[in-house]
Amino acid sequence: MRATELAARLLLALVFLAAVVGKLRTRAAFAGFVVSVGQFGVPARWTRPVARLAVAAEAAVVVLLAVGRTAPAGLLLAAGLLAVLTAAVVGALRRGARPACRCFGSADAPVGPRHVARNVALAAVAVLGLLGGAVAGPSLSPAAALLAAGVAVPLAAVAVRLDDLVALFAPTPSRTTRPAGRP
């Protein structure tokens, strides 16, 4: 295993694990996710089955990435799932819809170009992981494994908390203050 493959597997496993946990941690979180699936244009009778399928696919990514022999399948599934999710976001944006991003559970931020960019970047990570795993080389040293984890964990945190980071650094409207005693 190469450091690139390990970093990709760890980053994607953490992101998809956060997605699964966020959606399943409470009934309300899953119900909100089901509603958001409908906001992407899925017919009402299909929202719950599609939501369940999405969570099952995300969980499968985590399990497949955790086992060395199935990691390539996990990377392929991650890339495919991210492509489908990206297409759903792009389709919603083209229709002028701005459904809530329930990617990680209960966030209310509407989808936007940043979600497309995040998904494309994560899909690129999956492809890099596949390429890194296909290259023959020496076994992974402990230092390389530590470096891979040191890169993957903070990047996963950024991917998961992207909406919060954007909100944190978003410009705030300036408030005009009036001198005391003036209406």
TrEMBL record:
The chain crosses the membrane at residues 75-96, 116-136, 143-162. GO terms for cellular component: membrane. This is DoxX family membrane protein. The keyword Transmembrane helix applies. It comes from Micromonospora globbae. Coiled coil: none annotated. The keyword DNA damage does not apply. One of its GO terms (biological process) is methylamine metabolic process. Keywords: Membrane, Transmembrane, Transmembrane helix. It is a multi-pass membrane protein. The lineage of its organism: Bacteria, Bacillati, Actinomycetota, Actinomycetes, Micromonosporales. Residues 4-131 form the Methylamine utilisation protein MauE domain.
